[in-house]
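Board notes, transcribed. Complex of a protein with heme C.
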Amino acid sequence: MHRKSALALFACLSLSALPLFAAPTEDLARTCNACHGINGVSVGPNMPSIGGLPEAYLKNLLLQWKTGERYAATMDRHVKGYSDAELEALATYFSKLPWVPVVQKADAKVIAQGRNASDRCETCHGATGSEPDDEETPMMHGQWAQYLELELLKYRTDAVKMPHKKMRNNAKKMDAADVAPAAAFYGAQAK
Ligand code: HEC
Ligand code: HEC
């Protein structure tokens, strides 16, 4: 740690003829990791893992939070301190890390109910949430179930600003009783 910062200082000094440059993305990411876990792998059920999510998905969220197009309880405040270019660089940085599923246990009956409810989701998310059909779709296998459930509730609530219409329509078509089981099903998938 100390040696690294000494080296960084040395690099700065030796480049002092150059104009000031932006902080390296890795340093910016350390702030994110304080909540989202080392390498973006979260250790808490309310906090999503972000390492390895698709680049376009990450960019969409970070920029939509900044413009206020998308609701957040917390993240809107965090993104305000960064330029668009820094947010894009953070999206690229996190997208290059491996996705590490945190596989959670759930009751077999609940998982079976969730699997049934997820039939309609398969075309976009893949059978277990691990095969998003495009770069704007997140993986969900081994994402924290409690977080996935919260997200589904946001998509289902008109008053909450969530700009993706198709995902919103799909979430709204779910039976209320299937929301938590679907989240538990994805959270329990290793791949
Ligand atoms: C103080 C804790 C905290 C910090 C620091 C933080 N986040 Fe978050 N992040 C959250 C919370 C809480 C959520 C859930 C959404 C909300 O409530 O805003 C979230 C959600 C996210 C999501 C959504 C993931 C998904 O699958 O939907 C992304 C992406 C994200 N944060 C990226 C970042 C990045 C990049 C940084 C660093 C610039 C960062 N976060 C810093 C707390 C934090
Ligand atoms: C037409 C394609 C499509 C279908 C069908 C679909 N989704 Fe999605 N889903 C998406 C996209 C795209 C996103 C990201 C949207 C955004 O940026 O808000 C998403 C996001 C999500 C998220 C948020 C994950 C996170 O990390 O925040 C959850 C949870 C989710 N989908 C669950 C489901 C479930 C459950 C179903 C079936 C009932 C479903 N989806 C059907 C495309 C789809």
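The radius of gyration is 19 Å. The chain has a mean pLDDT of 92.
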